[in-house]
Design goal:
This protein has about 80 residues and is mainly beta. The protein has one helix and three strands; from the N terminus they run αβββ.
Length: about 80
């Protein structure tokens, strides 16, 4: 019965991470809810085994969402 109800529960999609060395070569891949600690892990759009030992393609990186800073109003003197 639990399996039946689990079909209707929305789950967050897993995030994908790649471990890069000093030269930018992918050394490992990881899927999880939180980024791994230690090393230079970057978030990528998907995990492909062909990336290991190769530089990551430019479209693979997930760019962080940068919110616009609130516009500051000029203070009256």
């Amino acid at each position: 019965m639990i399996f039946f109800w689990s079909l209707f529960v929305r789950r967050q999609p897993r995030r994908h991470f790649a471990l890069l060395d000093e030269s930018g070569t992918c050394r490992a891949l990881h899927q999880g809810d939180v980024p791994p600690t230690g090393g230079r892990w970057v978030e990528v759009t998907e995990s492909r085994l062909g990336w290991i030992g190769q530089p990551l393609p430019t479209g693979a990186w997930v760019t962080p969402v940068v919110s616009r800073p609130a516009q500051r109003r000029a203070l009256a003197a």
